[in-house]
Amino acid sequence: MHIDFLTIFPDLIREAVAYGISGRAIRAGLVDVSAHDLRDFADDVHRTVDDTPYGGGAGMVFKPEPVARALAAIRDAGRCLEHVIFLTPDGKRLDQQTVNRLSVAPGLVLLCGRYRGIDERIRELYVTEEISVGDYVLSGGELPALVLMDAVVRLIPGALGDAESALEDSFQNGLLDCPWYTRPREFEGLRVPDVLLSGDHERIADWRRKVAMQRTRKRRPDLYERIEAGDAAGPEEEDAGGRGK
Ligand code: 9D3
Prior knowledge:
Layout: E1 2-7, H1 10-17, H2 20-27, E2 32-37, E3 50-51, E4 61-62, H3 64-76, E5 84-93, H4 96-102, E6 107-112, H5 120-125, E7 129-132, H6 142-153, E8 186-187, E9 190-191, H7 201-219, H8 221-228
Parallel strand pairs: 1-2, 1-6, 5-6, 5-7
Antiparallel strand pairs: 3-4, 8-9
The protein binds ligand 9D3.
Ligand 9D3 is lined by residues 87-89, 113, 115-117, 132-134, 136-141, 144.
């Protein structure tokens, strides 16, 4: 998979993707990341990419021409523009179903906005999908784009080590995770539940399922209701394809 970021902070992207599972996936050749500096596509000596909004108001708006030129360059480099995703607070809230669907795309173009956003005509002409990472205000689309990439890359076959299984993840089965313990058996007066030391794998699996259910009901009644309703697929009911269960 090829992921093209379009941003005014390309070094932030390059630095962040070098770590962890995404860094390993890049080094393994499973995913190829390019961080394009929007300013490289400006047409003046000051490398201007934003301007004041028509009709007035505070803040600046990304000019359309540098964005369009950058997208043309990405296409000229051989990538299709089937998924041009604009990260914006007024996009659709990101969920595992969307991540699963995007994980089978040959490429993603992630357009990172800043305060006030981009000229609406870019959205009309080029953007295929608008995504938010939640109902809180950030200062730009770079961290959301990295969140999206992280969630997608871990679903690419070979990106996770043997110890990690994407299909066992919370949200793939629609439940929150159970509690986990490691040594020592007692820590600051708190003991590891006896069942985990029993060696009885069936009892352990039952306990984990039960505690995960209790935890989901208490903390995420919205997720729990979908399981109660006999929705075996959890949040995957509307199957969008992809690499999820
Ligand atoms: C004046 C109205 N604001 C919308 C709530 C404008 C605005 C604020 C912050 C426009 C852009 C931003 C910067 N945020 C993002 O670009 C962003 C974001 C976010 O702030 N929250 C959750 N998901 C995302 S995805 C991109």
